[in-house]
């Protein structure tokens, strides 16, 4: 059986890979962490927590810790704060350690479409993972330094895969290491074979985790709504999406295609006063598809936000299959495609798992029969 240390090492590397991928794509994937003390004592700086996407958790409620795309805070990046109340304009949020709400600091009320995940609670409290973010930051900085030494200077896919490869090498070298001193040659050979199998299995499991996380990022990331800023004005003034009050304007959303496979896309209204032309279609690799989006300005003058939900899936299965899964739930194609992508690696891990031999062998007995001496 693999040692507890080996299992723990594999789990740590997989968690690190998940968080590194999430950090690279700017989207929490199952796990996230805080970078400041604004949520203390619930979450100290560097603490991690389980982030449940809103597509699974549903809309947030008062008291939930949420991750949302801010407009003003953190330079418009992701912010982790608590919902303290809800009004007609959206959610009012606040860090547990802050004496004022985000809205008092200039952040507009948070709309449902801005919320990307909700912190998992156990027993009424967010389940904190101490220092998880601190460890991931150290791994990310070490990986970036290693990649820089190898000659890569831009943030591209090579960093992700090289980092995963480096983690795989660590597992290969140390995953099945054991103490073989003082053992018989045949036992050392058997232990070596076992260590190789364990290392192959660990690398296969790590590769499966990396593929699943990367595939999930490519599909879940577009689940976030596309925001359009609309100004309801007295007349058609210069400026993008400045619309006379009570009238409409049509713009174009460009659906990007993938690199290897055709992409099945769905574009739907994510808020009121939005109409979409072609709701679904297929984009060929390296191409784009234009979808018309009609935005309406209310009679009242002012600034408004409109949202369009965009979902994209690589077409590695027939489009009818994706359509059927999508009708069940937008995340169903993600689960099925992830399972298909991970299946070959899991099969390798299964084949590479050492088999336990029975304690006795056929035709022998555990009791030695001694001769009578005659």
Would you give an account of this structure?
The chain is built from seven helices and 17 strands. With 374 residues, it is of the alpha+beta class. Among the domains are: 4-132, Umud Fragment, subunit A (Ribbon); 224-315, Immunoglobulin-like (Sandwich), CATH 2.60.40. The radius of gyration is 27 Å and the shape is flat. Mean pLDDT is 74; it is low at 22-27, 152-163, 169-180 and 361-374.
The name CATH uses for the topology of the domain at 4-132 is: Umud Fragment, subunit A
Average pLDDT level? 74
- Specify the CATH architecture of the domain at 4-132: Ribbon
| Termini separation | 46 Å
Assign the structural class, choosing from mainly alpha, mainly beta, alpha/beta, alpha+beta, or little secondary structure.
Answer: alpha+beta
Name the helicity range: 25-40%
Task: Please mark out the parts with pLDDT under 50 across 5 or more consecutive residues, or reply none.
Answer: 22-27, 152-163, 169-180, 361-374
N to C succession of SSEs: HEEHEEEEEEEHHHEEEEEEEEHH
What value does the Rg take, in angstroms?
27 Å
Q: How much strand content do the residues show?
A: 25-35%
Total strand segments: 17
Largest sheet: 7 strands, antiparallel
Number of helical elements: 7
Q: What attributes characterize this protein structure?
A:
17 strands; Umud Fragment, subunit A; single chain; 374 residues; seven-stranded antiparallel beta sheet; Immunoglobulin-like
């Amino acid at each position: 059986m693999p040692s507890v240390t080996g299992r723990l090492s594999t789990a740590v590397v997989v968690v690190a890979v998940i968080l590194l991928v999430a950090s690279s794509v700017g989207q929490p994937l199952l796990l996230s962490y805080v970078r400041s003390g604004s949520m203390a004592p619930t979450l100290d700086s560097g603490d991690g927590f389980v982030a449940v996407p809103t597509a699974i958790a549903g809309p947030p409620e008062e008291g939930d810790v949420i991750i949302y795309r801010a407009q003003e805070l953190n330079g418009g990046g992701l912010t982790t704060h608590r919902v303290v109340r809800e009004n007609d304009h959206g959610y009012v949020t606040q860090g547990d350690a802050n004496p004022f709400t985000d809205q008092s600091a200039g952040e507009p009320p948070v709309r449902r479409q801005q919320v990307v995940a909700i912190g998992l609670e156990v027993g009424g409290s967010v389940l904190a993972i101490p220092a998880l973010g601190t460890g991931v930051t150290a791994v990310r900085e070490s990986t970036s330094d290693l990649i820089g030494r190898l000659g890569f200077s831009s943030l591209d896919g090579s960093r992700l895969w090289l980092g995963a490869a480096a983690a795989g090498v660590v597992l290969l070298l140390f995953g099945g290491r054991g103490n073989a001193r003082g053992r018989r040659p045949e036992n050392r050979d058997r232990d070596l074979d076992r260590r190789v199998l364990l290392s192959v299995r660990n690398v296969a499991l790590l590769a499966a985790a990396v593929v699943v996380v990367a595939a999930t990022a490519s599909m879940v990331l577009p689940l976030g709504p596309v925001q359009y800023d609309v100004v309801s004005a007295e007349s058609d003034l210069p400026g993008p999406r400045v619309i006379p009050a009570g009238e409409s304007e049509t713009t174009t959303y460009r659906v990007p295609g993938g690199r290897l496979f055709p992409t099945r896309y769905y574009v739907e209204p994510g808020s009121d006063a939005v109409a979409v032309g072609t709701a679904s279609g297929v984009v060929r690799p390296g191409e784009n598809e234009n979808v018309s989006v009609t935005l309406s300005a209310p009679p009242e003058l002012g600034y408004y936000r409109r949202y369009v939900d965009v979902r994209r899936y690589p077409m590695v299965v027939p489009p009818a299959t994706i359509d059927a899964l999508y009708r069940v739930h937008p995340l169903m194609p993600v689960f099925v495609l992830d399972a298909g992508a991970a299946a070959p690696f899991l099969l390798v891990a299964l084949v590479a798992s050492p088999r336990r031999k029975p304690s006795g062998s056929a035709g022998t007995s555990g009791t030695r029969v001694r001769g009578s001496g005659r």
